[in-house]
Amino acid sequence: MDMLPDTSAVIDGRVSERAGDGDLDTVYVPEAVVGELEAQANDGRDSGWAGLEELQRLAELADESRLALEYVGRRPDAIEKRDAGEGEIDALIRDLAERHDATLLTSDVVQSEVARAKGVAVEYVEPQVEETPDLAIEEYLDESTMSVHLKTGVRPMAKRGTIGEMAYEPIDEGVLTESEMRAIAENVVNTARSVSDGFVELSGDGMTIVQIADMRIAVAEPPFADGIEVTAVRPIVKTDLDDYAKADALRDRFTERQRGVLISGAPGAGKSTFAQAVAAFLDDSGFVVKTMEKPRDLQVGPEITQYTELDGSMENTADSLLMVRPDYTIYDEVRKTSDFETFADMRLAGVGMIGVVHATRAIDALQRLVGRVELGMIPQIVDTVVYIEAGEVDTVYDVTTEVKVPHGLVEEDLARPVIVIEDFETGTPAYEIYTFNRQVVTVPLDGAEDGGETGVERVAKQEIEREIRSVAHGHVEVELQGSNTAVVWVEDDDISYVIGKGGGRISGIEDRLGIDVDVRSLSERPDGSRTGSAGSPGAGAATAGEIVTPEITNRHVVIPLGDHHGETVEIRSDDEYLFTATVSRGGEIQVSRGSAIAEELEDAIDHGRTISVVPQ
C-alpha cells in the first residue's frame, strides 16, 4: 500500500508504526510537511523535533529496504503559509495524495472528513495524547515564595516572606548553566501550550510571557536580554475585603454607585491582592465585573472574564467592553498616557472603573492624571484614591470639585474651580489642586504628610519669583510675610523695571497673584545676605541647576524659565542628564507630547523627581 502522511501523522510517529506490519510499499512525504516541521523545530517546539525524528526513522527503514521513501510536491509560498489556518496547506497535501494514488494518513479529524468528501482515500488515526509535562520551575517554589528569578550564570534567587516583608535571597548555591536555563525555558513554553489552564500571553523576538494556573512566567533570551532569564511570579495571599481596615465604609462606597477608583502603592505593596478582593466583593454583590490586563495575572473567579489587548491596543479592548456594558472594570497597571486616556474614556461613558497604579504616595496617583486629562474632569474620572502599604489600606482619599478661593488665599476675586482631596474617614482636607497663574499646582494643606513650609507658601513664593524674574535682570529673592503679603529683594538697577511707570507693572503682578508685593533693594537687607533660593540665579546655580516645575498641556510639556532667552541649557532629572534645548524668546522650553523626550520627562515628573535646568 502506498501512503502519504500529513504533518499530524508524522509528529505522532504513526508512519513508522505501519512499517512493522509489512504492508507499506511507498511512503510519499510532502515537502509542505517538511517545511512545517522545520518551522516548528526552529521555534523550539517539541512537535517539530518529534516530526523530524520520525522522518529520520523513515529514512532508516528505507535504507533497510523495508519501504520506499520519496519526497514530493513543493514548499508552500508565503501566502499559503499565511492562510494555513484556512486550509491552504492541507489542500496541497490532499492534492498530492490524489495525484500519487496514495492513502492519506492523518490524525486531523477535519482533514480526514474533507478528504472523504473529496473522494480521496484516507485513514484517520486517533492523535496520541502526551502526559502533561511537569513544570520544572516548581521545584524552586514553597508556600512563602512570591517570585522566582533564574538566569544563566547566576544563583537561583527568590522573593520570599509575607506582603510588605519580602526578602530577595538566594535559594541554591549552584550557578545555573546555559543548557540548564535553556531546558527550563523550553519546559515553561511547552507546558503553557499543553495544559488546559495555560496559554501564551505574549510572544516576541526574545521575550515570551505565559500564564500557567496562577503563575505568570516571563522568558527572556538574547538578543532582547543579555542571557536566558526566567522569572515566575504568583500571588501568595488571597484576601477578602473584610480582611482590610475601613472595609465597611469601602463596601458602602463601592455599592452606592459606580465609582472611579485608583488603587495605588509601591511595587509589592499588595495593590493587586486588594484589587482581587474588591473584584470578588463586587461580583458577590451582583455587579457585572470584567478586567483589562496585559498580561492577565489577577486571580479572580471564573465568573469574571479577563480581557487583554485587542489587536495590540487597550483602546480596542475598551470599545469592545462598552458593548458588553460591565458595571465595573478592573484596569490592572494603568501606567502610560494611553492607559489613563482609556481609563478616563470608559469612566466618562458611565462604567465603574478601578485602576491599579504604581505610586509612592497616595496623592501621586492622582497627580499622574494631571496634564493627561482636563483638570476639571478629574473628579468625574476618579472620586476615590486607595493607598496600600505593606498589604494594608493605609489611606483613602475622597476627590471632589468646589468653586472657591483656594486655601491660604483671601481675595474673593481669586475664586476658581478647586479639586479638594479629603481624608475619607475624617473629612479633613489634605490637598487642593487648582490653576494658579496659568499653572496647575498641587498644594498640601494642614494634615498632609508634607512638613515645614505650607504648600500655599511654596506656590506663592515660586509664582512671585517667576513674575519678578520675567522683568528683572539680576538676582531676585522673595520673602513671604503673611498669607497675602511679600517682600521682593532685587538689584538696585532693577527696582524701576520691576515697579514700572507709575507702579503699573508691579500693580499688574499684584492683581494677577492676589498678593501685595513690597519691592526693595538687596543692598537694604539687614544682613546683606543672598540666599540663592531655588529658581534664582544665585550662588551655585550654574552647577546645581535651577529647579523648575514643568507644566503638562494637551500638546506639550512646557518648562517655564522666565529668562535665559536664546541660551542653550541642559534639562536634568535628579541630576541625571535628560536632553539639551534652546530657551525660546518667551523664556520657556516646549517639548511635543508623544516624543521620546516628552515620555522620559513625563515619567520623571510622575515619579516625583526634581527637574532642573543647567545653563551650558
Automatic annotation (TrEMBL):
> Family, per the entry?
In the N-terminal section; belongs to the PINc/VapC protein family.
GO MF terms listed in the record are: RNA binding
What NCBIfam families does this protein map onto? Answer: PRK13764.1
Taxonomic lineage of the native organism:
Archaea, Methanobacteriati, Methanobacteriota, Stenosarchaea group, Halobacteria
Q: Where is the composition biased (Low complexity)?
A: 531-545
Is RNA-binding one of the keywords UniProt gives this record?
Answer: yes
Which parts of the sequence belong to the AAA+ ATPase domain? 257-382
- Region ranges (Disordered): 522-547
Domain K Homology, by residue range, is: 482-553
Q: Tell me the protein's name.
A: ArNOG04375 family protein (Homolog to PilT-type ATPase)
Superkingdom of origin:
Archaea
| Residue ranges annotated for the PIN domain, each copy included | 1-113
Looking up InterPro entries in the UniProt record yields:
AAA+_ATPase, KH_dom, KH_sf_prok-type, Nucleic_acid_metab_PIN/TRAM, P-loop_NTPase, PIN-like_dom_sf, PIN_dom, T2SS/T4SS_dom
Q: Which UniProt keywords apply?
A: RNA-binding
Family matches, as SUPFAM superfamilies? P-loop containing nucleoside triphosphate hydrolases, PIN domain-like, Prokaryotic type KH domain (KH-domain type II)
